[in-house]
Structure formats: structure tokens, C-alpha cells
Amino acid sequence: MRMEFLELTSLSKSFSGETVLDEVSLSVQEGGTLVLFGKSGAGKTVLLRSIAGAIEPDDGTVVIDGEDVTSVPPEYRGIGMAFQNFALFPHMTAYDNIASSLTSKRMSASEIRTKVDAVAKLLKIEHVLSHAPKALSNGQKQRTALARALVSEPRVLLLDDPLRNVDAKLRFEMRLELPRLLADRGATIIYVTQDYKEAMALGDRIAVLDQGKIVQIGSPDDIYRRPANTQIAQLFGDPTINLLDVVPKEDDRGLHAFLSDQRVDFHGKFPGVAGRDCIVGLRPEALSFTETGGFPVTIEAVTPFNEKTVTLVTTLRGREILLSQPAQDPVPTGPKVNLQIAARDAILFDRETGNRIAPEPDGNRVEEAA
Ligand SMILES: Nc1ncnc2c1ncn2[C@@H]1O[C@H](COP(=O)(O)OP(=O)(O)OP(=O)(O)O)[C@@H](O)[C@H]1O
């Protein structure tokens, strides 16, 4: 069984009385990747810097491999970091930048050469090793910074939004390549990003940080299908989730709500929810056009993307709904068409708090088995 390798307990930090980290606790298994996801200013960088030892937390502990390193100087923590702004030494070549993280270790020049060459090959920057940073493209700078973090084979790797400044094409490629590359190194990784696709592609688990607090930790599937609140539901998914006001009712078939004429059943037990102001969350891909059944809508706009088509429709009552379907599926000729809902994908939230209403544990099993 894999061990928890990195453990943070109740880490807190304030600057001039303003709380930036609020009792953050989380752990990452040995060799695992945790993605730290959150909006700008959520505290992601401060958290990474606290783990690395560059910032001293006001409270809480950082434990690496069973050792409390909260008071250990950064250079003795066995941590490698790569930042979003590259932070390369401008007067050094790419090679020397990468090698700089090895110079404190007692290694011969040829050993250093072997290691730098290997990591440069992995990241496809062998041909620019003699260049100064100013002669590198953003993508090459980013790979150089990553190579520097990887080459010293740290036990823990902290990557602060390393793809933020690279162009879309490289970001797409790196999103595919990075998981294997990082898994091959065997390091325990915390990876910061504001891009939900990157978060879903890279993380075994995702921790969502909001105003210095962890608001949800789970697998990508958990966060997508069971978001803790409407805010998180909206952050994950493109196009964004449809959020529609409903007041669910209960009968002998259980809790349900009506969207136009279609009954949406919520599987499981939800005591006390009937009659409450709620929001139903429907992912755009949980909706589809149908010729029989469903409920009538009007097509307002059709937007084709490469791999999907997004259609905006309105219901008879004027509610706007986004629908996403594979690009090869035809959009019916409208404007009046019928829509159906894969009701088991509906997510229920409390309207007042925005928090997801989970079925009772017993009901959960019913839901999973359905
Ligand atoms: N050294 C510092 N002194 C005072 N305030 C700071 C310091 N470092 C960070 N902050 C504040 O802490 C908050 C969180 O900053 P942080 O850089 O961790 O956010 P972030 O989630 O990494 O954002 P981004 O995604 O934009 O990098 C911000 O309000 C920032 O102004």
C-alpha cells in the first residue's frame, strides 16, 4: 500500500492581518500527483512556498516522508520547484540553468552532463541548451525551468502553473505528455493550475482552494460529478453547467422536479428536501435532442467547435439551457425541437447556500447501483 508522503496539517498564514491560508490540511501519497486548483489570489502560490520553506506559516505543520520539516531550511527539504514565470538566470545558458540545481551536490562534470542531457532529451530541448534565456521561446523557457526542477530528482516536486505562459498548442501537447513524464520520475507532486482541463488531465486528486481554504478534495470524477457547491460546478466544465431553479417534490417514486414537462428524478433518499428552494445542475452533455418525448425548446444559437457542437436553447418559460453534443451528431433543424435529460446526471444544490445536497448514505448506494 502506498504511504502518505507529504502531509500538511492546519497550515495557516496571514499577511498584515489578512488570512491567506486558513487551516489547510491535505496529504499526497508517495508518487502521487495532487492538483491544486483555484482562482487567482486563492492562495495557491503561498501554499507551495510554505511547503518549500520560502514562507514560514503562522501555524500548522509540513511533514515529508514522516519527518516534520516545518522548521527545516528550504535547501534541506528535498523539494524541486518550477514557477509560472520561469525564473531562469538571464546570464546563464539553458544548460547552466538546468545544471544549477545540481551544483550543490557533489557530482563530477560528466555526471552532471549525463543527467542534464537525459532530462533535456525528455523535454525536447537538447538543441537549445547553449542558448541564453532571451533566445528561447516561452515554451522552451518553460521546459528549461521544468528540466531544472526535474534534474535533481527531488522527492517532492512543486509546479506552480508551469504551463500558464505557454501557447495553446504547446499547452495541449504538454497536457498529454506531462502525466507520463511526471509519473516516470516517481516524485510526489503538487501541481498548481487555474485550467480545469489541465487539472482533470493531471491529477489523481484535485484540491480546490478558495480564499485560502480547501473547499473540496476528490478525484477528477468526484469533482465533476459531485461538486461540493455551484461555484465549483461552474469552474469545472466547458460549456459551463446549467443551473436551474427548482422546488423538488416528493411522492411514492421519490424526490423529483419538473423542468417544463419532463420529470427529473433524484435517486436516493433526501429527507427534508421536498418544498425547499433548490437548484438543479445539468451538464450540457447530459442533454440531448429527441424526436419523441422530452420537452419543447427553441434553438437560439448553434456554435460548432472541433470536437463538439454547443447549442443554446430556451424553454417555453424562457429559461436558457446549453447543450453539448459530439460534433458528428446532427443538430435538428429547428427552431422548435424537443430536449431530453439524462436525469441520473442531475446534481441537486441548496439555493440558499449553493452547497450540493447529497443523498443519504443508504440512498447513495441506490444511486451508484442505478
Ligand atoms: N509576501 C506577501 N505579502 C503580502 N501579501 C501576499 C504575499 N504573498 C501573497 N500575498 C497575498 O496572498 C494572496 C494569495 O496570493 P497567491 O499568490 O498565493 O495567489 P494564487 O492563488 O497563487 O494566485 P495566482 O493564480 O494569480 O498566482 C493574494 O491576495 C496576495 O496578494
Automatic annotation (TrEMBL):
Q: Which InterPro entries match?
A: AAA+_ATPase, ABC_transporter-like_ATP-bd, ABC_transpr_MalK/UgpC-like, Mo/tungstate-bd_C_term_dom, NA-bd_OB-fold, P-loop_NTPase, Transp-assoc_OB_typ2
What broad class describes the main subcellular location of this protein? membrane
Instruction: Cite the GO molecular-function annotations of the record.
Output: ABC-type transporter activity; ATP binding; ATP hydrolysis activity
| SUPFAM superfamilies the UniProt entry points to | MOP-like (SSF50331), P-loop containing nucleoside triphosphate hydrolases (SSF52540)
EC class of this enzyme?
Answer: hydrolase
The answer to whether keyword Membrane applies is yes
Q: Which Gene3D superfamilies match?
A: 2.40.50.100, Nucleic acid-binding proteins, P-loop containing nucleotide triphosphate hydrolases
Q: What is this protein called?
A: sn-glycerol-3-phosphate import ATP-binding protein UgpC
